[in-house]
Structures are given as structure tokens and as C-alpha cells.
Design goal:
single chain, 236 residues, mainly alpha, hpI Integrase, Chain A, 2 domains, Integrase-like_cat_sf, DNA recombination
Length: 236
């Protein structure tokens, strides 16, 4: 609890709440395997009440970030454009490996998405070209790397500061890009079920069990529609 209190004292309420949640998950996992008799954090309440983020990037901000990404060193510019083009999670994009890409589809392994099946993300032409501009160091190497494919790129905080400076934008996170893409799907009248499948959001239990349709064609259509809108926004 001292660590959580320290994080709170630093003014990082959301981080403190997340830390407690992760600790609870760890002890629940240990208790399920009889490694501990009980979860000592089970009855501990969150140290603060936090609001869910609702930040999305405006059309002007989207264009500014897109253009600024071309001024970032490789592979960070390509990584940010992939965030925008696919709407996938930071951890999934940043740790992408070349063996996850088959033709024009990116298959995120089940262990990475922490679900009972892999997640297929259709790659539009622009997304495919963006990845193709990077050096392929071998089948099982990382796509976004500064170490010859040995490790994935990180240093997100420093790069975010740089893209803020270059784009003249601020107050947004990489996850806000994901929320922006989801909002654009709604704006483009993409069916809610298809949008959920693209974002790989959790299904209801019944639907998860009985609906095994992959929606690959529908997801490709949705991402192509978003690509068209994105390229229009950045061309103005």
C-alpha cells in the first residue's frame, strides 16, 4: 500500500487505481493456484475515483499528427501511422512481428490479445505500404525496431513529446487514437458489430460462444472506408 500511496502523492490517481487493479489480479491468479491462501487486497477500495477518458482527436489534429509522423525517426513515424490506420492497441502494434503478417492481413496471436482466438486485422494498401517501408530482419523479428529486429521499439514518452512538438497538438494519448478510430467508424456508419470486431472489443458471453464468424471481409471494408477518409483529411 505504501507504493500506491506514493503514486497518489505524486498526483497520479489513475496510475494508482490501475496499480491496485493489477495487484488484485496477481493475487487472484495466485489464490486460484493455491499459491496464497487468500487475496489480501480483495477488500481494498480504489484510492481515488477517476473519470473515463473521452478525448478524441479532431480532424485537424489527425492531419497534423499524420504529417508530423513523417518527421520522426524510423520506425516511430511508421508506428504512429499504423496506430491511425488500424486502430489497434499500442502493445499490439509496437510488438508486431513479421511472421504475424500474411499477405494483406495481420494476425495478432491469441496470447498477445489475451483471448481464446487470434485477432485478424486486414491491412489496407496504405497500411501495407507503411510496413513495407521498414526493413525486414527476418521472419520472427520485430517490425518496429531500432535493434535490427532483436527487440521492439519503446521510448514512447520521448517520441510522444516530439510528435506533440512537431504537430502542435497536446493533451492526447496513443490510446486516444484508438478511441478516435472507433468514433470515426460510427461517423462513417460502420455497423456497430463490425466496428467492435475491428477493435477486438469484448463480446457478450453468449455471442462469444455461438458467434464464431470472423467478419474478415466486413473488417476490411470498414478499414478501407476509414483509410479513404483519413487520406482525405490529410490531403486538405
Amino acid at each position: 500500500m505504501e507504493v500506491i500511496d506514493t503514486v497518489m502523492a505524486e498526483g497520479k490517481a489513475q496510475s494508482a487505481v490501475n496499480l491496485l487493479r493489477y495487484i488484485k489480479m496477481l493475487f487472484n491468479w495466485a489464490a486460484d493456484r493455491d499459491l496464497v491462501s487468500a487475496n489480501p487486497f480483495e477488500r481494498i477500495r480504489p484510492p481515488a475515483r477517476t473519470r473515463e477518458r473521452d478525448r478524441i482527436l479532431s480532424d485537424l489534429e489527425i492531419a497534423a499528427v499524420w504529417h508530423a509522423s513523417f518527421q520522426l525517426m524510423t520506425p516511430y513515424g511508421q508506428m504512429y501511422r499504423t496506430f491511425l490506420l488500424t486502430g489497434q492497441r499500442r502493445s499490439e502494434v509496437s510488438t508486431m512481428r513479421w511472421n504475424e503478417i500474411t499477405g494483406n492481413t495481420w494476425i495478432i496471436p491469441r496470447e498477445k490479445v489475451k483471448k481464446d482466438r487470434a485477432h485478424a486485422v486486414p491491412l489496407t494498401q496504405t497500411a501495407h505500404d507503411t510496413l513495407a517501408s521498414l526493413t525486414n530482419y527476418g521472419t520472427d523479428t520485430f517490425v518496429f525496431t531500432t535493434t535490427g529486429g532483436v527487440s521492439s521499439s519503446s521510448n514512447f514518452a520521448k517520441v510522444k513529446q516530439e510528435i506533440d512538438r512537431l504537430s502542435g497538438t497536446s493533451g492526447w494519448t496513443i490510446h486516444d487514437i484508438r478511441r478516435t478510430v472507433r468514433s470515426k467508424f460510427a461517423e462513417l456508419r460502420v455497423a456497430r458489430e463490425v466496428a467492435r470486431k475491428v477493435m477486438n472489443h469484448e463480446d457478450g458471453k453468449v455471442d462469444r460462444i455461438y458467434n464464431r464468424h470472423e467478419y474478415l471481409d466486413e473488417k476490411r471494408e470498414a478499414l478501407t472506408l476509414w483509410e479513404k477518409r483519413l487520406l482525405f483529411l490529410v490531403s486538405r
